[in-house]
Amino acid sequence: MNEVLNTIKERRSVRVFKDEQIKDEELQEVLEAGLYAPSAINQQSWHFTVIQNGKVLENFTQTAKETFLKSGVDQLKAMANNEKYKVFYNAPTAIIISGDTKAANPEADCSAATENILLAAKALGLGTCWIGSMPYIFGNGNNEALKNELGIPEGYTPINSIAIGYAASETTKAPARKENKVNIIK
Ligand SMILES: Cc1cc2nc3c(=O)[nH]c(=O)nc-3n(C[C@H](O)[C@H](O)[C@H](O)COP(=O)(O)O)c2cc1C
């Protein structure tokens, strides 16, 4: 099968990672793949923050837990009360994909970039998991101090994020796809 198609079909979410850090060249390759994503009116409205510092990752989880506890949402509160919960599992690298709130469609742009990164990582033998909790952590103007500490540019908000590292567990083949999801009109 074509290599690209194979990568798309074989990518699975990885949630258990080795401690070993990914190589700088691998990081650069996956970020470049993100930068080459399509975007509305070619605005390239994304910004990538890479965290490879254990203390910063830990602080991120603590801030997320405090926010979840105050959220009033039972599922988020349960995550905050789970001692083992880490926003990025135990991945050695996290990538936060922030979008320019004034752009035409930052959610779509950032999601195209996110998927490009997941696929590039798979092609390089890295494991990833898309982490969708950013709007819960940073929505409603929450955690501006953390945003500033992370150097997220003014006018951008975290939309998606990715845990990335070397997989410490095998992933199984993707289950069969749901039916009736396509209509072809000829
Ligand atoms: C928008 C979005 C948000 C997601 N958020 C999370 C998340 O917060 N935590 C997590 O473990 N997986 C998250 N995932 C991964 C999905 O759970 C996963 O893609 C799905 O179960 C299909 O499994 P696969 O990626 O192995 O094909 C997210 C995926 C998407 C597209």
TrEMBL record:
SUPFAM superfamilies: FMN-dependent nitroreductase-like (SSF55469). GO terms for molecular function: oxidoreductase activity, acting on other nitrogenous compounds as donors, with NAD or NADP as acceptor. Residues 8-166 form the Nitroreductase domain. InterPro entries: Nitroreductase (IPR029479), Nitroreductase-like (IPR000415), Nitroreductase/BluB (IPR050627). It comes from the Bacteria. One of its GO terms (cellular component) is cytosol. GO terms for biological process: 2,4,6-trinitrotoluene catabolic process. The keyword Membrane does not apply. Keywords: NAD. It holds the Pfam family Nitroreductase. This is Nitroreductase. It comes from Clostridium acidisoli DSM 12555.
